[in-house]
Amino acid sequence: LIYKVNDLLYQLLTDAYTMMVPLMTTAKKTVQPVTKTPATVADAIVRSLVAVNTDTVFGIPGYQTYHLFDAFAKQSQNLRVISSRHEQGAGYMAFGYAKSTGKMGVACVVPGPGVLNASAALLTAQSTSTPLLCLTGEIPSNAIGRGFHFLHEMRDQRATLRTIAKWAERVDNPEMAVPLTQQAIYQATAGRPGVACLDLPMDLQAAPEFPARTTTSQSVARTTGAAIDPALIKAAAKALAKARQPMILVGGGAIEAAPEILELARMLGAPVVAHRAGKGIVSDRDPLGFNAVAGLKLWPEVDTIIALGTQAELPNLHWGGMESRTVIRVDIDPAEINVYGTPRIAIAGDCKAALHALLPALVSVASPVTAARLKHLADVKNAAAHAISGVQPQISYLQAIRNVLPDDGIFVDEVTQVGYTSWYGFECYRPRRFISSGYQGNLGYGLATAIGAKVANPDVPVVAISGDGGFMFNVQELATAVRERLNVVAIIFNNNLFGNVARDQDRLFNGRITGAQLANPDFPALAESFGATGMRANTPQALGKALEKAFTLDGPVVIEVPMGEYASPWPVLFPMGYASQLDRLTAGEN
Ligand SMILES: Cc1ncc(C[n+]2csc(CCOP(=O)(O)OP(=O)(O)O)c2C)c(N)n1
Ligand SMILES: [Mg+2]
Predict the structure, then answer these.
(1) Nearest residue CA, atom 21 of ligand 1?
(2) Is this prediction's pTM over 0.70?
């Protein structure tokens, strides 16, 4: 009731004030036509975002975020609001925005169901070390923890978010709003990037802006990146110089060090293996750019491995034999380095800084790369390409897409037969052009992620692939792309099945397939009903033609590709089975 009365009084006062403004301006020319409401804490928060060049917020407004959205509106010359049709869509749009640029993505959602709807996207961003800030509404501060059954109330939202995000805090008084916003931005972007969530009780958003002050009742922590240890750099240089068969593994944490990595690779004559996030750091056109299948083919000979900004899941969880090799890991997150066991040389720090120290140390000790070595690597790469070419019809479709998508075009995968194959079978030539949901493997993240990527890269073609199963998880975001006139192209490989599940069940449970059959809409007609363009392509050649046309259109395009049988994409990637090293890792034998 207090809030209702408050709202009413506030409304009456602003209305009366607005009505008086014309009178004041005609009476006295010097009086400014003030129609603005007084600045709120929400305004101050949004100014903090604009100060770090935030230009887009993805979200859905609601009772507990009205003041934030109004503050966005007041900053409309600096900030664009893109509302989605489900909070998961908003989360993935912020994710796609961040993944394709390296900049922080921003989402804003109501508490409780809004937060939980967004949570799958937050988890994906956190798991892929993606900088994302989520501003979450919260019930009035004096109702928190009281169990009053307030709209969207959730028992402990901050605690829930802490299980997902890198950092989650709540603003408990107006004076902390700006410092905690700055801290949230810092947490999302500094060190190992990740998800920062800031809970903002609705009454505090609406409170008058708090004048800047230094004394604070909630403390604001700062963490600093570790300095690179020169002794470890020396040891790494020594180990690499001694290596007969070195291999470099790269992940998302190595993107900024792309030029240094190429230099290292050429100096050592070492292939650079990328799986998902690391794709494009070294171009697949470069003789030293290796996909996971080529990496695995070379693995038996490899004696020394340097993993840069990657969880190094491939050798640790799947390939095995890490204990008999010299392992060097460089990771900005010291907690990550020892997850699979302690590497011989563990360098906690930024990849670029580490390589700036390592490269000069190597110059005098590394031996020249022989022509025989390069020939051998080329043979391995060719043998892998040959094995991959047998994964049909996926490879033919991926090739058709690659032929049309320019080098700077963005490809968004999904967990579908063509998507798994793309991890090793879709060439990538630049970093941040291949977007994956990483080890979360979320169905339905593709379309919304592609929308976010297109918002951030309006001049670049963006294509998302999915199965019929995955596409329907977030189909509603077609409406967002139509409204925003975003030329995002969604290719649906339709086998009327949760295909991967059906194949596993068939194999594991003697042909008993449960819960995997799907009844689908007419996808092109569905797209047209949204105001998008719908197409159908029956062959790789037809898909190439359709895609060419699609990139010339205005607004989103859906291309359905009816599919029959697929070759399994798994044997070339995991011939030893998935996570074959798990028992060894958990038995502590590393
Ligand atoms: C959010 C989510 N729920 C469930 C799954 C489990 N899952 C993995 S693959 C798959 C089937 C995907 O079907 P579809 O998108 O049509 O691709 P297909 O394998 O048929 O090519 C399912 C249900 C998942 N990966 N993500
Ligand atoms: Mg399917």
Answers:
(1) 416
(2) yes
